[in-house]
Amino acid sequence: DTAVSQTPKYLVTQMGNDKSIKCEQNLGHDTMYWYKQDSKKFLKIMFSYNNKELIINETVPNRFSPKSPDKAHLNLHINSLELGDSAVYFCASSPAAGGFGYTFGSGTRLTVV
Amino acid sequence: QKEVEQDPGPLSVPEGAIVSLNCTYSNSAFQYFMWYRQYSRKGPELLMYTYSSGNKEDGRFTAQVDKSSKYISLFIRDSQPSDSATYLCAMSARGGSEKLVFGKGMKLTVNP
Fold it and tell me: Which of A7, B27, B34, B49 holds its CA 20 to 30 A away from the CA of B95?
């Protein structure tokens, strides 16, 4: 039973398109995140939601818009995709308080052509 | 200067070797230190975590934190081919939902 699941696993799309990535966690965690991992494997936070409320919004182009319909789900919508958006996007979750360390999903490999 | 520095390697060792992986950091507010292991085409998985300074051992893995030097290490004893992965250090000032700042990751290959 997957703890943090992302769909799709792979996404190939043309420049200028709009796409969404979905994430769901069944761990009962209060906080969810989107991280971007570039070609050099560097993981950088994009957004964080705590119980549907946006709490971290790093310097990310406003073409990226997260949405959390409930605390178990966090989606990422990307408008007007650019070549530089090609990366692996990871969803993660953690307890809000007590305990630390994230549980990551297996990633969505986005390729913009 | 990046908040967290990690030599990206790659590092290749023979099976059975002792492996030492290290990270340095600049933010003295960091209190929580983690090591993640990431296999190819998978998400990172939490391997070890420590709070503040000191050592922590779990089987073949030992994590060390030296806050005075802003330096953390992960030692792998009797390394196995199954340890071949990318190892990422991560740290935060507070636990829970605090954002983690990651190192670049070190790619380790253990040769049989």
Answer: A7
